[in-house]
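FYI - complex with nicotinamide-adenine-dinucleotide, inputs then prediction.
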Amino acid sequence: MGTARTQFADKSVPASSYVESIDPSTGESIARFESCAPGGVPAIFDRARAAQREWAARPIRERAAALRRVRDAIFDSRDEIAGIISRETGKPRVEAVFAEVILALDTADFLARRAPKWLRAERVPHHNIAVKTKSGWLEYEPLGIVAIISPWNYPFAIPMAQIIPAVAAGNAVVLKPSELTPWTGALIGEIAARAKLPENLVQIVQGGAEIGGALIDAAPGKVFFTGSVETGRKIAEACAAKLIPSVLELGGKDAMIVLADADLEIASSAAVWGSFMNCGQACLSVERVYVEQSIAARFTALCVVKTKKLRLGPPSDPDAEVGPMIRPRQLERVERQLQDAIARGAKILTGGDRRPELGANFFEPAVVTDVDRSMELMRDETFGPVLAIRPVASAAEAVAMANDSPFSLSASVWTRDTAAARKIASQLRAGSVMINDVASYYGISEAPHGGRGSSGWGRTHSRFGFLEMVHVKYVDIDHLPRIAKSWWYGYSAELAAAADRFVETLFAPNWKRRMAALRGSCGVVFRRDRI
Ligand code: NAD
């Protein structure tokens, strides 16, 4: 399964034919993988098509059993998976387990139980008396080949949460992992093999943008893209040109609203974790904190104290809480945003410096105040360890500021007043809102994930994400097959009059009028003039 092969330090391979896994904490190459030539993609799709036909014909019980084998293979390989993810992304091992391994395990477990029910044909009762002589039902058909193009920041959880529903629904998958995390991508292929999924059902193609483009050129049934807004736009355009449907999971600028009655100890811990987990490189990172004026000073002070306590280090250090950023260009982006913010009056209360003595790409988590919307830091995705705090006069002002963004992925509200929190949640423009927690809904298999605007479209996770993996087909059966239908040819003035009465019988605003029209409408049913 999969096309990747580890080639440690094999310098004989030409640079254009491999992708390299680089340890972000040292900047050194740790593995190499053969990349796929764009010209090789059609053959990969041919193999996927053949595997998919055979797979879709299997009973759903068998496919659910395969999901349980995927779950067990992940469980058995959990140490190896967490180790490779940490090594390749720089994230602490604890985060690799909580946010990636557990999520994939639960997705497999959840869908092994739910997918058979969700794929069962479903009766569609007709409410309209005019069509009561028919029965309808829904069938859920696979899309064929699902192309998945993934980012590097959650290189296991994100593709697994798409591959598992895709195969459960009877599809084949071609996954292109990020070129920054090819090792985890290759491991996904190995997990599929360890779970004894049929050959070529889940294929991994390694490479960069050109291979992602080649997947779309090969016309899959659907494209699931997770990544930046900029690339998402290109994917959407490429898909539109071929009328290929897509799900786009793009960036975020998540707001956290802290009301005056919130538990500040807990809320400040959440803000620090929410901003700095995965070194701030999460689509669900807390990027803007709006805190009520009366508690802003205390809340900010707590955030500063807690940020200063964080231990920076590589994932090989089990006590390290914040790892390196993925690559120098990500650091440069964060520095650029901070410099722009400072030039416009922002203050850095702690952090914001590179820490080269710790290794490559280390950056001290920063707490920033005196921020406003004139700053790029408060408008564009930062995708780095910056906690930006802005006092607000009221909850209403916090909601207005939170909604003043092209992004709308997720948000959180912090208060002891559940009724107030629910009211605010319904006013927020976001795909999800957490009350008194951040980001963790992503690990709840029942919870849909996705945004709108610059955060993309479509959903992953949950039943809604599952339904993105199927065609919904409506089938209808007529129970009076020997009777020609009232609306067929043989039109006449008589039929037109009967049709008017029929409309009145069904939709007149009161029963008296409906009953009065009933007799006249019988001409629609008992027609002598059909051809
Ligand atoms: P990216 O857009 O640079 O790359 C994502 C993937 O797209 C990679 O596999 C890349 O090789 C591929 N790609 C790049 N150009 C392409 C092209 N022209 N055609 C086809 N494929 C192409 O994103 P990234 O840096 O890997 O990830 C970070 C971004 O992802 C952030 O903006 C983050 O918010 C977002 N993200 C969103 C979610 C979510 O669920 N909404 C989750 C994780 C990350």
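The first helix runs from residue 41 to 56. Confidence is low (pLDDT under 50) at residues 1-13.
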